Predict the structure.
Amino acid sequence: MRRPFIAGNWKLHKTTAEAVTLVKALEAGLADVTDRDIVVAPVFTVLTSVSSALGDSNIAVAAQNCFPEMQGAYTGEVSPLLLKDAGCRYVIVGHSERRQLFGETDGFINRKLKAVVDTGLTAIFCVGETLEEREQGRTFEVLEKQLRGGLENLLRDAMARVVVAYEPVWAIGTGKTASAAQAQQAHAFIRDLLSRLYDADLACRIRIVYGGSVKPDNVDGLLSQQDIDGALVGGASLKAEDFIRIVRFLPS
């Protein structure tokens, strides 16, 4: 049985004081939850404060991005090593906003993913199609390209430090959500592809989570699907009450 995984991506929100207030509320509201992994991904500037505030609680910290080199003349960048030092256990890699707004390629994402796992952190590796690609019937083609490119030459053992997040770009921040059936179809395709890239045992064990306007009122249906192992939550993770309800999902 795959352990459920719920992560909140705060994107470009929350000052230090606001971030600490939020995680303290989450810590209090989720202290008894021990059967699933809970993660928050704040902005770089508050990572250390959030990590310190959470201490040894059941909530882990992720960074929203990284650079694939550990150190050097890379002004403005942050390495996986520094993120680990700041208290992170996870790093989001290949988020659609990084692909769409900053032009990150599958090859560059592959470098970052390798750097993350080589540092001993776990990558939350995002893939997903745009509305245009879906309407053209290219969803599986796009997912295969992104998965093959992002995981190129990544050894089987390293996959223990990868969580795959399927995030249809057309459902991020739009209020639209893939139906439970649409999401399940994409997740099943990803799992099948992983069985071909590696083997059936690994594909059965790896966690694949859904990201795309996950909210308290749709999380139960989404996570009741056979191949959906959790959620990468955006806007709803900024409100303690909403994120607590999502973490406490009740799949049918």
